[in-house]
Predict the structure.
Amino acid sequence: MTRTGHTVEKIGGTSMSRLRELRDTLLIGEREGDALYNRIFVVSAFGGITDLLLEHKKSGQPGVYGLFANDDNDHGWLDALSKVATAMSDIHATVLESDGDRQMADEFVRDRIEGARSCLFDLQRLCSYGHFRLADHMGVTRELLSGLGEAHSAFVATLLLQRSGVNARFVDLSGWRDDTVCNLRERIGHWLDSIDLSAELPIVTGYAQCSEGLMKEYDRGYSEVTFANISAHTGAEEAIIHKEFHLSSADPKLVGPDAVRKLGHTNYDVADQLSNMGMEAIHPNAAKILRRSAIPLRVTNAFDPGDPGTLIDDQPAETPGVEIVTGLDVVALEVFEQDMVGVKGYDATILDVLKRHNVWIVSKSSNANTITHYVHASLKTVKRVVNDLETAFPSAEVGARSIAIVSAIGRDLCGVKPLSRGLRALEEAGIDVIAAHQTSRNVDVQFAVPRDASDSAVARLHEALIGKEETNLKVVAA
């Protein structure tokens, strides 16, 4: 598709919870007339709503979905759904300034929540018969519930902007009361192809109902995949993700706000490494879509609209160097087998077990008789993996150790010796290094350290490999 000069921009849930501020800075700010348009905004649910609908992202505490899946007496998920309705109403009551708009938002929530309640009741009754199994329908249930959050936030944002004189349009990709069967591209095209971007401001749900089933493939990373597909479908000049902070060289809380610097410019290789370390600039599958479509990605601070943020594209670095240092808690899963030398199949079996338990592999190392995978997983999952590996290799020694991986990442590390300099810096700081390695692609170097030394290792490596500049931008979250 020919580029039209517009941008597609995504706003995350935490930022959406400060919607009035966004209106006065990012969404409207000093823009007038035509400058308000030629933008498409893809929004996530307000902060905390998806946790209530599905499960808490960090603690795992079940929301409506989890309670419905394991319900014995109906009351758990019903009460949880009512709690979602109250939370939604409380949020838009503080965001919307007009009583009429609040009433419209209340009615919108009532319609969606009661509709979902009826669907779940009907599904529960259907599955009380022996021919139908609830487990067969939980994927669709998860999608239904998740879409409620994005629909609510997009609707409220549209009301707020319309009240402020903007010709905003609510674009609901969630498939609510729509019996059309279509794929993602068709869903996007049906809603967006007829919009005049020069005169309308689409506010689009981050969840899109489609035959592919976004949650089955991406789970809670679906909104960025929707965002990337909209960018590709509409031929965006640029895709922009608005966060609550600038993408910086390290966590300001660990190295100090005066030491970190905004990245400014990096590439998709670095973005992939950040995703692998749990520090997503963008979901890796979304990055792949943008990369294939030759659409650059910009990551900005939503509350600092005058700053251009960090541009991510395919351009190489002008000069080699480390750009960012970050850490991740992992478990070192080690399989030692004396008879492993020269025998094929150990790798394949271990990977099969890890895949079966849906374990996230951060890194891997091996020698003649030992294979170690550094994985990011719960202790419960790790115990199950260990049990399966001990069954598969009864004569092997299988161990699991909680550690951390600290990684120094950059577009081009050739000639800057991050491995040797990093080892020297950690040794001088008295930090034990369990393992370290650098790949031949020269985009990252990883140091395995004791978990309680992770923060100190990030700070020390940042100081040694990146250092300070007087021109550093303060990037503490707004």
Summary: Residues 325 and 462 are 6 Å apart (CA to CA). The first strand starts at residue 7 and ends at 11.
